[in-house]
Task: inverse folding
């Protein structure tokens, strides 16, 4: 029951006659892939495939999701067997604004430092749908098309030898060294419905959570993003596939700590449901006999309450907890950063103030539906200047204040 | 070195050479050139010329800051229209509360009203820091004038960076935390920092949260007393009224303790029995008649009339001058505990 992640390092993407891996170059038959994707879903009216490379003078707009190309080999069961991964490659889906919270990726200039996807080789899909679709169908089309593209690209590796392989055996919480602290990971997922959805093993996370999920399933892509929260703290599918908290815990596993399990929990919309979820999550952490917990988050505002309820519950149960959050302290940093607080939250990691503004320099190429630019959350009516530069809040940039702790940004008092 | 920057310097009556506490009510006036510590400033920073020095009485500004600041802006505005200075420097005020308030208020006002960069300097425990740190840059100084050279050495480079609109950081540029949140890139990812923090917690090692929870101290008013004629009353003060000689040696500033003193058999305080230990206001009138700060005489009259039930046998006194909120809260809690145990229902709390 071991998972093997086989990585194929890709250093370049070029367009060519066939969609194949040639050495460390991914070759894409652009027209053919566009057609395959377009015919995969009748609801697609047009699709444009572009590449965006690190250092390019390119701004990708209205980004819905980012996906790492992966496919299962020999058997389809998630969490076991072999999975092929095109390392350094990302499928970036764009579409017209539905939730006002689609994001920006700059491949160079000052904005590039704030997103992980300025460093990946991006296959950008600009997806247009037929008229008359509901916002939810629109998002579904974009989501499924992105996943299809990611799988098709990863399948180019089927008969190739990987650059390296990582092996992940299952963890038996009963068989960990008694000298090390037993750590549980509490993994909060946005699940508010109304375009604020996340999918776990193909089910909407509104149902069936909280629950314990094997780390091998999580590493193998059990979680798919399907939401339009602010770009800065939306956990994209790519983030979920490569969850940095889980990776850090596994790196320390059996060295300085023992990872005893991951509790996936939701972020429901009523206070009663929040309380119930928090209580059930704490009980699940207790069944893992955890000595301590680490907690990641998605979104802000409403989820602040979910996080504070969880922290209070865990601390009151005698389980010291460290939690990641971003801040919304106003552009000048003078406001209270969270919508909720609890005195038990004494160990917070702040991944940045999403209200802080940044001037994005003009870039030569714009990908995505550019007419909607100033409607993005984090932009202002006057965000777009005559010279093509843009002043936005960090919240408009994909992954800028990622609450899985991807970035090296933090917020401090000055 | 040639003059590169022209500044306006603001000083209280003492540092401005007008006089001591007896001149604390002096209205603001503008002198050309440098005065007092301004001389040292120009000597240390030859590229700076002090165009004018504004001198004000501590009490004049602290007692009616709004009107005083309007007056000061009136004096400064003509200076800021023609031959505009580059920077306003106020103080340093060290640990002087009233001086600190004036410096903070002037800096805030010239920034907001005249769009002039401003800097002041204070000791971290100066009560004005809490009031103005968000609105102006306050360089770190020692608690008294012995640290003048260091204070100027902190204030001026900071001020010049503000003039040049360069980035500043509290540690590097020697100013007190403003209570603002600001983004920085660090070496480790958030995930790595979280695991490191958790391991420190699990191992009982020190760790520092990256976002202390905001906690607002709200004192709910107690419900009104239905029958004062039956109520037991106590007197508490932060105005420093102590028995003559200050037996507990309560500090004149940033008090480290409060005192508990008997009122048994006393009908009123007097200059022979009591005095103030407070270093933040003119003690003349409190020492002449300590009832002015701790109104025992009036309370005894009310007791005789039956307007109050009884007076608690002790009073409690500390000095509020530059005392930290943390300590003030601690003293309040300790005093309240004693009062509740004695069945006290009401307190007259006087401050200065």
Result:
């Amino acid at each position: 029951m071991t998972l093997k992640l086989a990585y194929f390092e890709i250093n370049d993407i070029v367009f060519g006659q066939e969609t194949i891996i040639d050495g460390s170059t991914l070759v894409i038959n652009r027209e053919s892939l566009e057609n395959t994707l377009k015919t995969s879903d009748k609801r697609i009216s047009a699709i444009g495939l572009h590449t965006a490379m690190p250092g390019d003078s390119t701004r990708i707009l209205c980004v819905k999701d980012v996906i790492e190309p992966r496919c299962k080999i020999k058997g389809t069961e998630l969490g076991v067997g072999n999975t092929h991964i095109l390392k350094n490659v990302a499928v970036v889906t764009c579409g017209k604004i539905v939730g006002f919270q689609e994001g920006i990726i700059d491949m160079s200039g000052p904005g590039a430092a704030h997103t992980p996807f300025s460093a990946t080789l991006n296959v950008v899909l600009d997806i247009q749908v037929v008229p008359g679709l509901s916002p939810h169908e629109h998002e579904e089309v974009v989501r499924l098309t992105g996943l299809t593209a990611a799988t098709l690209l990863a399948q180019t590796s089927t008969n190739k030898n990987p650059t390296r392989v990582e092996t992940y055996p299952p963890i038996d919480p009963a068989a960990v060294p008694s000298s090390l602290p037993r750590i549980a990971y509490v993994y909060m997922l946005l699940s508010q419905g109304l375009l604020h959805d996340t999918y776990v093993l193909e089910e909407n996370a509104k149902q069936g959570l909280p629950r314990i999920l094997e780390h091998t399933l999580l590493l193998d892509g059990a979680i798919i993003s399907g939401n339009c929260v602010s770009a800065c703290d939306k956990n994209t599918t790519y983030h979920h596939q490569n969850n940095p908290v889980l990776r850090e815990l596994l790196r320390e596993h059996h060295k300085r700590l023992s990872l005893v399990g991951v509790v996936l929990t939701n972020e429901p919309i009523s206070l009663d449901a929040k309380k119930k979820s928090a209580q059930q999550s704490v009980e699940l952490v207790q069944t893992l006999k955890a000595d301590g917990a680490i907690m990641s988050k998605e979104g802000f505002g409403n989820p602040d309450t979910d996080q504070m309820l969880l922290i209070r519950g865990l601390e009151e149960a005698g389980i010291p907890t460290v939690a990641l959050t971003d801040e919304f302290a106003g552009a000048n940093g003078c406001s209270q950063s969270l919508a909720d607080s609890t005195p038990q939250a004494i160990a917070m990691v702040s991944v940045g103030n999403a209200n802080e503004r940044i001037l994005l320099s003009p870039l030569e190429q714009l990908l995505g539906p550019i007419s909607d630019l100033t409607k993005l959350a984090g932009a202002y009516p006057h965000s777009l200047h005559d010279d093509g530069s843009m002043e936005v809040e960090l919240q408009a940039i994909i992954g800028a204040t990622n609450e899985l702790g991807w970035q090296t940004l933090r917020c401090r008092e000055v | 070195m040639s003059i590169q920057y022209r500044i306006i310097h603001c000083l209280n009556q003492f540092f401005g050479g007008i006089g001591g506490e007896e001149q604390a009510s002096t209205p603001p006036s503008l002198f050309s050139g440098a005065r007092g510590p301004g001389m040292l400033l120009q000597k240390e920073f030859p590229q700076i010329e002090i165009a004018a020095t504004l001198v004000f009485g501590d009490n004049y500004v602290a007692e009616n800051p709004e009107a005083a600041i309007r007056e000061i802006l009136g004096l400064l505005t003509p200076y800021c229209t023609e031959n505009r200075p580059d920077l306003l420097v106020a103080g340093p005020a060290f640990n002087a509360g009233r001086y600190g308030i004036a410096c903070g208020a002037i800096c805030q006002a010239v920034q907001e009203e005249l769009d002039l960069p401003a800097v002041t300097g204070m000791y971290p425990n100066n009560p004005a820091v809490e009031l103005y740190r968000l609105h102006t840059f306050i360089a770190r100084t020692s608690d008294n004038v012995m640290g003048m050279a260091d204070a100027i050495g902190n204030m001026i480079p900071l001020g010049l960076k503000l003039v040049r609109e360069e980035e500043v950081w509290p540690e590097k540029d020697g100013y007190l935390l403003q209570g603002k949140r600001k983004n920085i890139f660090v070496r480790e990812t958030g995930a790595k920092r979280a695991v490191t923090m958790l391991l420190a917690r699990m191992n009982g090692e020190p760790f520092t949260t990256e976002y202390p929870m905001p906690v607002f101290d709200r004192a709910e008013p107690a419900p009104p007393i239905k029958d004062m004629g039956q109520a037991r009353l106590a007197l508490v003060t932060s105005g420093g009224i102590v028995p003559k000689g200050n037996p507990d040696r309560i500090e004149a500033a940033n008090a480290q303790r409060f005192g508990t003193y008997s009122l048994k058999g006393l009908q009123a305080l007097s200059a022979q029995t009591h005095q103030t230990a407070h270093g933040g206001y003119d003690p003349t009138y409190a020492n002449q008649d300590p009832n002015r700060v701790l109104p025992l005489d009036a309370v005894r009259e009310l007791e005789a009339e039956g307007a109050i039930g009884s007076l608690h046998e002790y009073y409690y006194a500390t000095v509020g001058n530059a005392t930290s909120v943390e300590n003030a809260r601690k003293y309040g809690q300790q005093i309240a505990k004693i009062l509740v145990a004695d069945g006290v229902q009401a307190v007259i709390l006087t401050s200065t």
Chain A has two domains: 3-163+360-385, 171-356. The two ends of chain A are 50 Å apart (CA to CA). The helical segments of chain A are 30-40, 135-154, 215-219, 237-241, 244-252, 271-287, 302-316.
